[in-house]
Amino acid sequence: MTNLADSPMTSDSSPVTEQPALKMEGVSVYYGSTPAVREVFLDIPTKQITAFIGPSGCGKSTVLRCFNRTNDLIPGAKVKGNVFFRGVNLYSKKVDPVEVRRRIGMVFQKPNPFPKSIYENIAFGARINGFQGNMDQLVEGSLRKAAIWDEVKDKLKDSGLSLSGGQQQRLCIARAIAIQPEVILMDEPCSALDPISTLRIEELMQELKEQYTIVIVTHNMQQASRVSDKTAFFNAEATDQGGKLGYLVEFNDTVTIFTNPKQDYTRDYVSGRFG
Ligand SMILES: Nc1ncnc2c1ncn2[C@@H]1O[C@H](COP(=O)(O)OP(=O)(O)OP(=O)(O)O)[C@@H](O)[C@H]1O
Known about the structure:
Elements: E1 20-31, E2 34-45, E3 49-53, H1 60-66, E4 77-85, E5 88-89, H2 97-103, E6 104-107, H3 118-128, H4 135-145, H5 149-152, H6 165-178, E7 183-187, H7 195-208, E8 213-217, H8 221-227, E9 230-238, E10 244-253, H9 254-259, H10 264-270
Parallel strand pairs: 3-8, 3-9, 6-7, 7-8
Antiparallel strand pairs: 1-2, 1-4, 4-5, 9-10
Helix pairs in contact: 3-4, 3-6, 4-6, 6-7
Bound molecules: adenosine-5'-triphosphate (ATP).
The site of adenosine-5'-triphosphate (ATP) has 14 residues, from helix 1 and strand 10.
């Protein structure tokens, strides 16, 4: 089994920030025989925030799921091309998808805490992953990193489901952090939250990027321009079969995408002319 920790990026002589954490080379995704996304080439920078934007159905979530092999869990989904994490091809037969999902965590649109105590929401996954250290410390550290410790420290035995939506989402981020991933994928993490909870998550993302590489799918262009360093704009084109096929139009620094994009489609989208 290929060890995902074995990679040139662990060398002290090469600063991690200079190499992409994740790399896509010619990735196409199919659901059954229907193509959903074609030929994506993309480098995700280490310890930065990359946003995926684009109209509904252009394949943002589909592409995001390729980074931790969660498309494998969808019957009929097929990924072609290569996805590299720290130089290791994640789709190689030697790579264990469970290990991939441990190293590359995911937070979903709707907060989905386990129906267990706040403490167990953090401890459960760590225990399953064979964590041998001090569990109390791990729980506190993860909740602190997710900026929710002060709100829950006196009620760790209460159910995770008793928290507000915004708190539940930070609990889910803490749960992802507890597994000690290197990358956190976020699929519209704020779309079910009110503006104040959204702001908390956005602030939290800025803190987390000191330690983690973050990729976020968002429908909210203001959010992408506020939080991200890089932005990938996806669009979809009509197919001969009457469907839609997603593709990457443009990928650049967020400020360039929003102020001086190279493609007319991008300019029209970010200025609200379609989508
Ligand atoms: N589980 C699935 N089974 C079959 N087709 C799917 C599945 N998930 C996505 N698709 C199709 O793949 C295409 C891309 O969908 P995807 O959800 O990735 O786009 P998106 O840009 O994230 O959309 P949205 O912004 O609406 O969430 C769409 O045509 C969608 O119908």
